[in-house]
Amino acid sequence: METVQSPWQTAAILIARLILAAMFAMGAAFKFMDMGMTAGYIAAAGFPFPLFLAWCAAILETLLVIAFLTGAFFTPAALVAAVYVVFLGFAFHGPSHWTAEQAEFGAFMSHFPFAAGLLFAAVHGPGSVLASKLGRW
Fold first, then answer.
1. Which of 26, 27, 74, 89 could connect to 126 by a Cys-Cys bridge, CB 3.0–4.6 Å?
2. SS3 sequence, 44-108?
């Protein structure tokens, strides 16, 4: 059952989808521009196979961009993105980093409103305009 959206709701949803896509597009772009640096960052956090994981992250972020722009598989993509964002917060900015650099706490905390927005998006979907019905739950 499709609900009718007002023009401001349609605009807000489309802008939100663009923002989500842009956030992950920037992350993917930085990874693709210097995969070695990304792998080094992953290795510094103590993860094995850092280059493989860097490529996996870049590919995942690219797939998320496609999902947010097209609306295809939007709900599962938003759920995966929320888990991914919380994981990144703990893995790269979690409590073990706070004593060395107090600003890491802010970086850690910034992941949670992002995850909340992704969960909200997952519940409400991509809207009815410029949204593929592929993979709708």
1. 74
2. HCCCCCHHHHHHHHHHHHHHHHHHHHHCCCHHHHHHHHHHHHHHHHHHHHCHHHCCCCCHHHHHH
- Which helix (H) or strand (E) covers residue 7, if one does? helix 7-33
Nearest Cα neighbor of 38 from 50, 22, 20 is 50
Q: Are 68 and 117 spatial neighbours (Cβ–Cβ below 8 Å)?
A: no
* The token pair that represents 35 in the structure block: 């995969």
Q: Is 42 helix (H, G, I), strand (E, B) or coil?
A: helix
Q: What is the pLDDT of residues 82-105, one digit of tens each?
A: 999 999 999 999 999 898 888 999
**Token pair belonging to 74:** 């939007």
pTM: 0.92
Half-sphere exposure of 26 (CA within 13 A, CB side): 5
Cα Rg of the chain, angstroms? 16
Side-chain-side CA neighbours of residue 14 (13 Å)? 11
